[in-house]
Amino acid sequence: MLRLSVLLIFSLTLCKTGYTQDISHLSPKREFRGVWIATVANIDWPSKQTLASPLQQDELIKILDDHQQSGLNAIMLQIRPATDALYAKSREPWSKFLTGKQGQAPIPFYDPLEMAINEAHKRGIELHAWFNPYRAAFSLSPSDIAPNHITRQRPEWFFTYAGKKLFNPGIPEVRKYIIQVVLDVVRNYDVDGIHFDDYFYPYPEKNQFIPDAKQYELYGDGFETIDDWRRNNVDLLIKELADSIRAVKRHVKFGISPFGIWRNISQDPEGSESTGLSGYSVLYGDARKWVKEGWIDYINPQIYFPFGYKPAPYEKLVDWWSNNSFGKHLYIGQAVYRATERREGWLDWQQLPNQIRYLRKNPRVQGSVFFSSKSLTNNLAGFQDSLRTDLCRYPAILPQMLWLDDIPPFSPLNLEVVVANQLVVLSWQEPLRARDGETAYGYVIYRFNASEPVNIQDPSKILKISFDGKTTSFTDFSAKRGVQYNYVVTALDRLKNESTESNIATITLP
Fold first, then answer.
1. How many other CB atoms are there within 10 angstroms of residue 2's CB atom?
2. Fewer beta carbons under 10 A from the terminal one: N or C of the chain?
3. Sequence-ordered alpha helix ranges (H) in 283-350
4. Against a cut of 0.90, is the pTM above it?
5. How far is the C-alpha of 506 from the C-alpha of 464, rounded, in Å?
6. Cα–Cα distance, 456 to 458 (Å, whole number)
7. In the chain, what are the domains?
8. Alpha carbon distance 112, 128 (integer Å)
9. What are 75-130's pLDDT values in tens digits?
10. Strand order of the sheet with strand 473-476?
11. At 209, phi and psi to the nearest 5?
12. Are 184 and 129 in contact (CB under 8 A)?
């Protein structure tokens, strides 16, 4: 009898934890699935500078709906393309890419960033505010620049390169200004992350030279070369901004998307097996250092190349970055915009799906970010279809960042399920506060057939991921009549730590 009781307990344990179920063929339950929404030159949104606010809002909601249906869970929204703003609480003028004229507010008035955050969070999507730190103006014509633009107020902070105005990173006041611009957003908006792309010092142009010799003479003591001084200028911005973000809101993530090659192995024994442009040497961005020093929470290299491409082979670069992520998150930048190019590697429309499959085999890669939104929603090479029917068919919770928060919330309490108006309705109580003071930022609702183990590691059983900790009910519109279901709910905190499951609630829809 004792032996029978032990076997029964063991069997029930297997059923609850799901250890007997093979889910290795499914997409990861935890994965960063991001997309860049570029506003510069109206690449992705809004489609035109002349759109009235309601049409802009409709477009943005459609974009978010499309990406939610594709299984994505993060957007990088470009809110400062050229020392301008797609948000109201800014010290810089409104962007011309929003309204057609720099400094002109949207009509009727609304705050695009506030709206984007609210709509993203409704859909269980994180919003990372994407800044271009140094780009100041695309045009040198005074008529294109608002009277209160910083290039007019502090012209000594800028240099001209290839027909554009750029901040001079070698001036200490520039660094302080940029940090305050970013902190305006951290303080005033409920963003999940701050995101920089690859534009630091400018990409090289023929017969163009960076005019910063004067600043090097003023501020370059202790540096043997101007190249080392330039890299240090960028390092200082990244380090000081990281410290500032964490001092204001510790849960806000900070990530950077550098060029896909740090250094080639011919330039540095620590470099990658590649021969292309080096972000370290040409853009003066020492991205490997930023991760190694722990200044950023994720690195998102733009590996916009196919497998086997000799100057920059995708597989070699993914492996290199995974070996140089130093315990921080690594998300691979994927070139959806190249999916239909008639060039080496891209003739195969399985290139991008195979890239996703490749990076998922590497436990040190936590996800992808796709460039850009329009390429994805236009379904280039059928890639959006691949996400929806295969690669991202099931939802994913964003990966944890245990260096920011390693304390999970407690479980939701007293889950109940009833039938109301021929629909299954769940309700529960929010969890008690964990020892870090957090309760629930959101919830994950799971549904299992009565014959299945309750295994919350199985993403195919997720019905909804919510970022609304105040809503403690859920209506299941997809339940089938005559089928018995088991439901459980877990709690998420702000940094997506997940609780253990609630009690099991069982019901059959008659």
1. 6
2. N
3. 287-292, 314-323
4. yes
5. 18
6. 5
7. 32-391 (3.20.20.80), 405-508 (2.60.40.10)
8. 14
9. 999 999 999 999 999 999 999 999 999 999 999 999 999 999 999 999 999 999 99
10. 413-420, 423-429, 473-476
11. -135, 140
12. no
